[in-house]
């Protein structure tokens, strides 16, 4: 599952769990983005903080793990590089599914090497409450949408709540609230 995870929240975790159940997946590997080039105009927290929060949030689930491939690769993050690395590491016998939000998938035709992407993995878009996907002309059979139960949480809302002193308990796992406090993340309302 690819995302910026700034911070990871229960919407991401429910989405991963639902998609894993839907496709009977053995494991979900969370891959925090290194440099999200399509968010270049936004302030994004340090990759190491986003990685550690993802580890904390997923630690208790034996079927969830976290990969450093995107944060360890220099330069902007392209999913084609992510999938090439993961596919090489896991071998040819593994069926790869790339999970992300349906809103992100709607932009997939602008991603690097889009045609090759569809040869490496099946793409799954988690539909968030209130978001409708306008099919931008995705190839048939290569993309699935899975509806996620009503959890209208976003990372931006979590950041804004922290910046304005509102609680984020129960929107994110307890350890994430504590990590954000400890590191003083999201204190500035401009992010
Ligand atoms: N509550 C949710 N339900 C389903 N999908 C979600 C939910 N929240 C996030 N996603 C999806 O997970 C993917 C990765 O999430 P990302 O890290 O960008 O979080 P986000 O909450 O969308 O962040 P931001 O609010 O900063 O844009 C995104 O493509 C997003 O659409
Ligand atoms: O490959 C690309 O060009 C590309 C462009 C935009 C987003 N992505 C990936 O899509 C996933 C969701 O991104 P985001 O910005 O919605 O968190 C994440 O894994 C990104 O690395 C990938």
- Please list the strands of the largest sheet in the order they lie side by side: 1-2-3
The coarse overall form would be globular
Q: Give the amount of beta strand, in percent.
A: 5-15%
Task: Give the ordered list of helices and strands.
Answer: EHEHEHHEHHEEHH
| Number of E strands | 6
Overall pLDDT metric? 92
Percent in helix: 25-40%
Oligomer: single chain
Largest sheet, strands/sense/barrel = 3 strands, parallel
Number of helices: 8
Unreliable segments of 5+ consecutive residues? none
**Radius of gyration computed on alpha carbons:** 16 Å
Q: Based on helices, strands and strand pairing, what is the structural class?
A: alpha/beta
Ligands bound to this protein structure: adenosine-5'-triphosphate, nicotinate mononucleotide
The end-to-end span amounts to 24 Å
């Amino acid at each position: 599952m690819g995302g910026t995870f700034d911070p990871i929240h229960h919407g991401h975790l429910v989405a991963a769990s639902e998609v894993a159940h839907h496709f009977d997946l053995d494991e979900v590997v969370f891959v925090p983005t290194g440099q999200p080039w399509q968010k270049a105009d936004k302030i994004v927290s340090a990759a190491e903080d986003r990685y550690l929060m993802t580890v904390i949030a997923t630690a208790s689930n034996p079927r969830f793990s976290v990969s450093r491939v995107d944060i360890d690769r220099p330069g902007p993050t392209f999913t084609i590089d992510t999938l090439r690395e993961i596919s090489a590491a896991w071998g040819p016998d593994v069926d790869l599914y790339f999970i992300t939000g349906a809103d992100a998938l709607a932009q997939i035709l602008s991603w690097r090497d889009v045609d090759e992407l569809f040869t490496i993995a099946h793409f799954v878009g988690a539909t968030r409450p209130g978001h409708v996907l306008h099919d931008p002309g995705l190839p048939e059979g290569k993309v699935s949408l899975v509806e996620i139960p009503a959890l209208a949480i976003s990372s931006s809302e979590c950041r804004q709540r922290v910046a304005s002193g509102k609680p984020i308990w129960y929107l994110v796992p307890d350890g994430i609230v504590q990590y954000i406090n400890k590191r003083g993340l999201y204190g500035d309302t401009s992010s």
